[in-house]
Amino acid sequence: MNTVACYKVVADAQDIVANDDRTLRFDKASYVLGEYDLNAIEEAVRVASDTEGRAVLLSAGDARLSDSKLRKAALSRGAAEQFCVVDEGMARADALQTAAVLAAALQRIGFDLAFFGEGSADAYGQQTGALVGALLGVTVVNAVSSVRVDGDAVVVERSLEGEVEVLELAAPAVISVTSDANLPRIPQLKDILAAGKKPSTTWTVDELGAACAPCVEVTSMLAPQSVARKQVMYEGDVDEAVRSLAADIKAAK
Amino acid sequence: MTRCENVWVAAEDASDYAALVAVARDLGACATAVWMGDEQGLDAVRESGAGAVIHLAGGALVEDGAQVLAQLAAERTPDALLVAPTKRMRLLGACVAARRGACVMSDATSLSVDEEGALRAERMVYGGGAVTVERGVSAFVVAVPCAALLASKAAEAASAPGAAGDAGVPCAVETFAVQPGSSGIRLVERRAREVDAVNLSAARNIVSVGRGFAAEEDLALAYELARAVGAEVGCTRPVAEGSKWMARERYIGVSGAMLTPNLFIAVGVSGQVQHMVGATGAKVVVAINKDKGAPVFKQADFGIVGDLYDVVPRLVAELER
Amino acid sequence: MDFRKTEEQELLLESLRTVFERGNFEDYFKECDETHQFPDKAVEALVEAGFSTLGIPEEFGGTSVDILTQVMVAEEAHAQGYPSLCWINYSTEVDDILTFGNEEQREKVLAYALEGRKPFTLGFTEPQAGSDSAAMSTTATKRDGKVYINGHKTFNTSADRAPFMLCVCRSGVNENPYKDFSMYLFPMDSPGVTIEKLDKIGNHMCGTYEVYLDDVECEESDLVGEECKGFYQLMKNFEVERLTLCAANVGMARCAYDEAARYAAQRMQFGKTIGSFQLVQEKIVDMRIKIENMQNMLYKAAWKKDHGESIMVDSSLVKRYTSRAAFEVIDEALQIMGGIGYTNDCRIARLWRDQRVYRIMAGTDEIMVHTAGRALVKEAR
User: Would A236 be classed as within a structural domain?
Assistant: First the structure.
């Protein structure tokens, strides 16, 4: 089966600095592959290799997507080729706009199974895969913790809140996998070296004819209101510290 | 969207409707319940306080109803669809949204209607590192209230039953047929998941375990402390996902449980925002960590700088004196 | 001059850091240090991620890579707290055998090296032959078509785990010892081999042994390379081996520095952080200068080797400088930590014990003066 894994390049949350007025600074942030998307890539690569298919990558974003290190980082994880939709507007795109772009690109690439992660590492709306599947009018399922392909049949396990469903899907299908689905590989040097030689195609949103109107706008983004804590620290003599802390705990519980 | 008067609500569990209806009512809307379950559940949904019920019957899976629901939404033009924060409902919500040219405002910590009549949601992004305010600008929007928001609405409704308006009075039902299998998904088997029966949100006290624990068997220390305090045990994401030492139900953080306990004791937790955001609602936060510079101490009321293997047994002994 | 790492190097180091992140080995290393265990778990994780194959030629199942990158990887691992003398890459050892060994020897050594297991302990130092390697007296005597090895080797790292010994012996053919040494590769479980563990002040995760060789029977085919050329064969890669040791020096220094600097920034005394006192700032600044110097010197030497330039002098300079500077950095780090730094609970205490031997092993500080000094004076003549 031919598979596509979709991923997003995001600012590393650890590098975001909060100013005193709660505004955020991204200037020190490094940009990385979304951590949940690594599961999508791993699953797409595994399924393709088990079924003698081909796994490719797809992403949409701003110019950062063209960063050659990030491209190599993505392609060092086993996929054969990469497709990027690069457009300055993508940085502000809402989930539907992103999904429309990905859906148009997926149509152009062609696929049996398209994989998404549980959610993006920044917005974590847990919806893009579902939106894409619905826009394409194909089978779509989320919360998938394992995928098995048997001939033409795609059988997945879906981990819901209180139950596990075993589902048979009609391909083509869009599948969002959980982070339990696999342990993403750690790229080795030969994978990293090979990544630089893999083909990569870039499209614009216009080329795909996938522009659509926004449906949600972000009006503010601030650091969370910090809760004032007492920050009493007990150091030194352990017995004394433990006695003090135990008293605090007893008073609080 | 220029108003928010007609809101549809959907859940898998009939008992979630009262809270969803309450959220819709807070928006000044009259709620229509969309029910895709069985007849027994239907009775409960009819008494949830919704003004009407749309019953999608005949689907083998809830997912089969997405197309019909989107069609109905196109015809009847509700302003919004609110769905319960479960995986199945997230999928349904997104499928309906996409077909209606909308997207989903997921895990809203609060929902309101702004001056222009647009639905406004506050939600966390960057794993709790930032809070955004989003507003729907399309004619229709889907929102997922976060679990804590629904829980607080459910508690309000329970404490003041009168406020629930029409609750208890069965409302009218319209039934629509759903084509089984229309989702392209066939159910092969359904089995109960070995769910760790823990409800962290309901726990009065929490002991949270981080990667300061070197081995799985050492978690016994945390359970002992929890027993001494009368607490449930939760953990950081790496403990649940990386090491798989605990079930995912026990993972605390923006993509896990968001808590409002009385007491939150972080043991061997470094204090990354992605985890600690789950404890911002705690009354008192206690931290035990050997690294004095660990960010957790800045977010704690009381802390001990020390090796948890040394501190925890002594603390348990002291608490049990 | 381009001081940037290549994207490939950066990605490789990211992969390495992921191994450490997933492994969360810090407490494990502490436990191994306490119980004198080899850190197998961390070795397995690094091997699984392919780090043992770096530098071994592709045709032998490895991944060819320049020395600079190998040095960066070793440095980063030690900076992440990976224990000294346990590094999992044996590409230089493999190269010795690939160059001089026969088919059978190559296969044996490769299999272990690719799995990140030390293929052999080097039988070089003897009680009477430390820096004075010419004084080695272990003999290889031919008798009835066999070779019998007799002698006493010492300071053999991992003699308990390594399946083979690469033993440097006198052949008894030439008066000049350097033209009389031959190398034999034999299994450590051969009859006549006994080992005795040394009780050291540090490097507890890697055992060091005395090895007694009593009529150890070898085949003539166990000879590695040519008879009487053993010493020169050994010299082929000693410069690169030295650079790998230097990488550990830099890594350990960085590890200690990071911890101490972080501590200085948060430890409150007299109502402020100790990092706000200039006496502590001076330490941090000087430590940082040494780390920068070590890295620059080491990377440049690696770069020169990669570009076919001689590093005869450089390797001695880097070895002497990084061994001493790393010790100074770690010692100052311990000082910043105060009493805590002197407890085994603090990682810096381990680094302090472990790194000290780098000033002695693989050519002492003093021998480095001897080797580089002669050359530099000669160059000025």
Answer: no
